[in-house]
Structure formats: structure tokens, C-alpha cells
Amino acid sequence: MSPRFRLRPGRRDTLGLIGATILLLAAGCALLAPWIAPHDPTAVSLLARMKPPMWIDGGSLAHPLGTDNLGRDILSRVIWGSRISLAVGVAAVIVGASIGSTIGIVAGYFGGWIDNILSVVINAQLSFPFILLAIFLLATFGGGFWPVVFVLALGAWVNYARVVRGMVMSVKNQDYVHAAISVGVPTARILRTTVLPNTLSPIVVVASFSMAQAILAEAALSFLGVGVDGSNPSWGVMLNDGRAYLQTAWWLTAMPGLAIALTVLGGNLCGDWLQDRFNPRIGN
């Protein structure tokens, strides 16, 4: 094996470590927000409005990343915003993975008309732009934390269903599954103890990418005004609040935008690393 190929796994491990570190930092900010945020994220101070970051003339250590048009501390809002953005991402992954994996297991194992219906539904949903569907549903029925979660899960379940269905179709033809069927093991037990464990690896890989996509989608929906409640700080809401000041106060959008970019990057790096670990032939 050439030196180039001997080095590649190490580079992938390094990038995976960087991604995991970014996600851990984001999770730490979300969990410790009440203790590490220097100010109340909703506290208004008109005397301190539109302060630039501390490294620009007029900035101060009291507000390291500056303040917004109402004098609210940007750093505190970014820290508190991680709570909603990450919570939406994690919740959407859990709901989407639960629904999609269940449907994928049932369709892949039993096949027949169930599998045919699933294929039609998946193709129909994939043919329609998800962001338009999400905007329509949230604009019609109202936004909020759980509506956003369920809309994002609605868009993500097809990815789990497709991947899990393919894995199950392969697993169900293995000798150990046929042996379990021949000795009369109940179908529910076979699915729970034999089929499901063999699908966990691709589920984890899809979930890592889906969380990054969910965080980005939540920010986009909140930016458009149909996401989470605007009274609570989230990265998408901050982008929406700052878009009117792009030319005069760039930090209002740059700071939450940087937080979104880093978190999505961390999720994608972790997803790539997990994919390499569970599928070592990919990328070689």
C-alpha cells in the first residue's frame, strides 16, 4: 500500500475529531448557557445599541461580539440560540429516524405491496422541493418548536426509510435469519433482535448528516419568519433580525451565521468519519 493511502485514514480521524469537538462545544454552550452567557439574551439596553465587536473601534469587553439594534448582547444570544437550534436538530433526528427506520424495516422485511407503496411515497416526496412544503405547512398551521420539529422530520424520514430498507433486504436473506425463522422465532423478535441491530450503523450515519441539515433548515425557516417563536433567541431568528442592518452592522448576521456554519461543518465531518468507519471501502 502506498504512503498516500496509509495517511488517509489518519486524516479522516483528525477531521472526525475536529467535527466531534465542534459539536461538543456547541452542546456545551447549549447546556451551560445560563452560567456562561455574560448577559440576559433578551435584556434591552438602548444606550448600548449597535455596539461593534470588541476588536473594532467603539467596541468593548462588556460585549465581545457587539450588540444588536435593541442593545442585546450578541454573544449571549448566540450561546442561548444554540439551545433551540440544537434541540430542534436532535428532536427532528429522533422523530425522523424513528418513523423512517420503522417503515424501512417493515417494507424491507415483508416486501410485496407494502414495499411498492413505500417506493411510490418516497419518490413522490423526493420529487417535491422540501423547503416549499415546509414553508407552506408552517405558514398554514403556524410555527413553533414542535411544528418545526415535525416538519423537518417529515422531510428526513425518507432518507432513513431508503437506507434501512436496503439493509433489511440484504440482512433478511442471511442464514442466521433463515435459521431463526425455521425454528419458529416470532417475527417481532427477529426484527427486534436480529434485523434492527444490523441496521444501526447506517442509521447513525444518516442521523449525523440529518442533524446538520435540520439545524440549517431550522435557521432558514426562522430566517423566513415561519420557524420558531421570534421572542426566543435562535440563530435563524438572529439572522432575520439582522438582515436590515447588513451594510451598517454586519456582526448582527455574521456571528449567528458563523455559529450555524461551524455546527453544520461539525455534523458533516462527524458524518463523513462515521461513514468511513462503518463503510471502510468508501473513499478508498
What can you see in these coordinates?
Helix 2 (74-110) packs antiparallel against helix 3 (112-126). The protein is elongated, with a radius of gyration of 23 Å. Helices cover 71% and strands 0% of the residues. Mean pLDDT is 85; it is low at 1-7 and 280-284. It has a single domain (3-41, 63-278), classed as Orthogonal Bundle (MetI-like fold). It is mainly alpha-helical.
Question: Any chance you could write out the topology, listing elements then pairs?
Answer:
Blueprint: H1 3-36, H2 74-110, H3 112-126, H4 130-141, H5 145-171, H6 175-182, H7 187-195, H8 200-223, H9 235-242, H10 251-278
Helix pairs in contact: 1-2, 1-10, 2-3, 2-5, 2-8, 2-10, 4-5, 5-8, 8-9, 8-10, 9-10
CATH architecture: Orthogonal Bundle
| Count of folded domains | 1
Number of strands: 0
CATH superfamily: MetI-like
Helices and strands, in N-to-C order?
HHHHHHHHHH
What's the main sheet like? none
Helix tally equals: 10
Helix content: over 70%
Oligomer: single chain
The CATH class assignment is: Mainly Alpha
Instruction: Kindly estimate the percentage of residues that lie in beta strands according to DSSP.
Output: under 5%
Poorly predicted residue ranges = 1-7, 280-284
- Please report the distance between the alpha carbons of the first and last residues: 11 Å
C-alpha geometry: elongated
CATH topology: MetI-like fold
Average residue-wise pLDDT: 85
Structural class, by secondary structure, is mainly alpha
Radius of gyration in whole Å, from Cα? Answer: 23 Å
